[in-house]
Structure formats: structure tokens, C-alpha cells
Amino acid sequence: MVSGNAGRVSHEERKRRTREALTYAARGLFIAQGYGATTTDAIAKAAGVSRATFYLHFRSKAEIVLEQMRKAEPDILSDYRALATVPLEQGALKDWLLGHAETWRRYRIEFSAIAQAMAAESSVADEWFESYGHIVAELPELVARLVESGLEPRRANARLTALAMTIDRAFYFGIIGERPEFLATIIEEIAATMVFGLGSPLTIQ
């Protein structure tokens, strides 16, 4: 005999499906019309739920972007952990950058929405900025190398933060902005800069 509960969907499963539907709908709208033009009402309608249901899951559309950012972060941090083992050679660093670019391509839509949201939502901008601290925390070997070469710890952290910011900006314009020739050239230049920047204590006075 089949149980009377067969085929029923649990409350938690319904919540999960609704949340996924809202996230998927928001993602599609961010692509089609941009973050700024997308309203919570439009997201709810595209997901087939009420506005009230939207607010049961998210307080704002910015929260959807923050959730997307948090889902991408483990892969970003994994890439940077691998950087600590890469030889300070331009070819090896270029290969690392190309691999990291693939991670960016995988999250291209999410990163595009994040970039748009940062201009309007301080919570998104603040969390993106905090993510650089998470990146540096994954690179104790590189911090130690720079300190051993004569750089103050504060400057070592700042140099790695600047590197991550530089890569983000380059990948934003090259990948999100669909400029493949620029991306190929800038990866070569960043790799060359990394050879020097990750191994030298030189600072601007």
C-alpha cells in the first residue's frame, strides 16, 4: 500500500524551491534589463509568486546578489590558495591567471549583477570589499615571503589586496565587458607585474 504521504513535498523543500525560483528569476532579469531596472515586484512575478512571498525569502534584491556572491566566494578563494604554490615565473603566473579567468567566466552573470549592485547598494559594496580580506587570509605564505624580503606586514597585506583588486578590474572589463584582446594582453602584463610584486620589498616612499 502506498503511504498517504507519498508524493508530498515537505515545507522545507517548498521553501528551497521557491527561493531557487526567485534567484533564477532575478538572475534572468538582471541579464535582460540590468540590476537597477529590476524591481522586487518583477522578480516575484517572473518567479510566479506574490510580492509577499518574495519578502518571506529576501529583504531586498540586494540580498539575492549577496547570496550569489557568497556562493562564488569558495571558488575564488580556492583559486587564490593555489596561487601560493605557483612559482614566481611569468609563464606559471599567466597559467594561474588563465585558470582564474575560467572561474570568472563561470560566474560571469553573477559578477555582472554584483558590479551593477555595488553602485547602488552599500551592503554589496561593503561585502565585496571585505572579500579582499578573505583573499589575503588565504595567502599567509605570500605575506610571509614579502615580510621576509623586508616589507612591513601592513604593506604586504596591502600589496596582495591591490593585486586582487587589479585582477578583478581587469577581468571585469575583459570578461564581463567582452574584450578578449584586451584580456589576453592585460593577463600578460599582470603576470609580469606579479613576478616583481610578489617577490620584491620595494615600496614607493
Topology:
Blueprint: H1 11-33, H2 40-47, H3 51-57, H4 61-83, H5 90-106, H6 108-118, H7 122-137, H8 140-148, H9 153-176, H10 180-197
Helix pairs in contact: 1-2, 4-5, 4-6, 4-7, 5-9, 5-10, 7-9, 8-9, 9-10
Domain HTH tetR-type: 16-76
GO molecular function: DNA-binding transcription factor activity; transcription cis-regulatory region binding
Protein name: TetR/AcrR family transcriptional regulator
Task: Describe what this molecule looks like in 3D.
76% of the residues lie in helices and 0% in strands. It has 205 residues and is mainly alpha-helical. The protein has 2 domains: 11-58, Homeodomain-like (Arc Repressor Mutant, subunit A), CATH 1.10.10.60; 62-199, Tetracycline Repressor, domain 2, CATH 1.10.357.10. α1 crosses α2 (40-47) and α8 packs across α9 (153-176). It is elongated and about 60 Å long. The N and C termini lie far apart (81 Å). This is TetR/AcrR family transcriptional regulator. GO terms for molecular function: DNA-binding transcription factor activity; transcription cis-regulatory region binding. Residues 16-76 form the HTH tetR-type domain. Keywords: DNA-binding, Transcription, Transcription regulation.
Helix coverage percent of residues?
Answer: over 70%
Major sheet, described briefly? none
Average pLDDT reading: 91
Q: Provide the CATH architecture of the largest domain.
A: Orthogonal Bundle
Please report the distance between the alpha carbons of the first and last residues: 81 Å
- Broad shape: elongated
**Tally of domains:** 2
- CATH superfamily annotation of the largest domain: Tetracycline Repressor, domain 2
Q: Output the CATH topology of the largest domain.
A: Tetracycline Repressor, domain 2
Q: How many H/I helical runs?
A: 10
Whole-angstrom Rg: 21 Å
**Uncertain residue segments:** none
Determine the strand fraction and express it as a percent band. Answer: under 5%
Quantity of strands, as a count: 0
Structural class: mainly alpha
CATH classification class of the largest domain? Mainly Alpha
> What is the helix/strand order?
HHHHHHHHHH
